[in-house]
Amino acid sequence: MSEKQKKPQKLKARLPRGFVDRSAADIHAANAMIEKIRAVYERYGFDPVETPLFEYTDALGKFLPDSDRPNEGVFSLQDDDDQWMSLRYDLTAPLARHVAENFQEIQLPYRTYRAGYVFRNEKPGPGRFRQFMQFDADTVGAPGVQADAEMCMMMADTLEALGIQRGDYVIRVNNRKVLDGVMEAIGLGGEENAGRRLNVLRAIDKLDKFGPEGVKLLLGEGRKDESGDFTKGAGLNAEQIDKVLFFVGIQNYAESATALAAMVEGTSKGAEGVEELNMIGALVSGAGYESRVKIDPSVVRGLEYYTGPVYEAELTFDVTNEKGEKVVFGSVGGGGRYDGLVSRFMGQPVPATGFSIGVSRLMTALKNLGKLGQDEVLGPVLVTVMDGDVEAMGRYQRFTQELRSAGIRAEMYQGNWKKFGNQLKYADRRGSPVAIIQGGDERAEGVIQIKDLIEGKRLSGEIEDNAAWREARVAQETVPEAALVEKVKAMLEAQAEDRRRAGA
Fold this sequence. Notes:
The chain is an alpha+beta fold. The protein has 18 helices and 18 strands.
């Protein structure tokens, strides 16, 4: 066989690694969840804004968390005038650019929210994707920690609006200035100690995993794990370690605030940070949120990025991981004050604070709690096709449009209509609640058969033979064409009532 006669190679369908196709059920669940979040943000006086998926790479630049290289972690390309553009890594850097570019028109404080996809050019793994959705809220132009305290309370209200019970979550708050003050107090201030400070932060971040003893080793010479692998420590002496462990080990902030203030006294920002935490404590307590928002010095998320208060929403209930172990679910979002981000475009100080919810991770948490996917998406009412002539098809289409105009989800069967059994099988697969049937006899009389497929399925289990089935004409009614919409609505409402009773 010649080269030209060879059968062309079929293109292989391949989903790119680190990306997912989303099903209708997932999309409906995410939309319902986002609407509940949006309602809370709107109630707090925040307005939506949308920025594009692409930004010029230098607008993202060094503010990528935990990265020293501008292009690390992002998908980039050059446009036709040789400028580098990147898919956004988060929703915060694009907001900073938007505020700076429109600063003269924006009313400060600028209170806004955004939901959208972000992209990470990182190695994918279990639960680690290259595209995922975030939902952010930010206040730009408010220098006081009232804005930070409000963010924490809004996070608490959001989790409760999604059905997470009080006691199953906590919003934990710390302050970058206090931690900087502690670092300065143990002799690790200044640019020359930036590397050692980062090692201390990484050690503190392992508190939940290794406990105080493990962190003590990581702050000192290092720690050997069960496999024998050795992790080099931050090299602090005993006195320095004690001060760091005192700070991150604070359980009751009100009782320890005085001792903490004494530790950071004389540092450049430490005392200011303690005062800010005291104010946040007073604000959340005054609003009755003290059991939901807790000051916790062990929170160190992204501290290289933030300039003041930092906060994290943590779910405290147990879930079973892939190894079958019971583990605490953990963080579903967080944020903090990032006063430097807008300022770098402006050449003047612009205070800002905000938080980000990981939508996919929060959806996983809600599934674990049984709070998601319970409201099954109702399939469309199916208008069946009994005759393919022009007049009949026109009628079937009219029935379909009448239902749609009344706000009822409906579709006309578009497969091979000659096998009626296939139409009912299709309705079953689609989860259709009702089928509309009109053959030649019904058409002559100007009537329609309306079949309650949900009730029919239930009754079919009680009928033992075909003769009884034919005689019963299970869950089926014949009505005049003019009564179609009214009868379908009544049938759907009865089904909804049955679902409510079953769920009660």
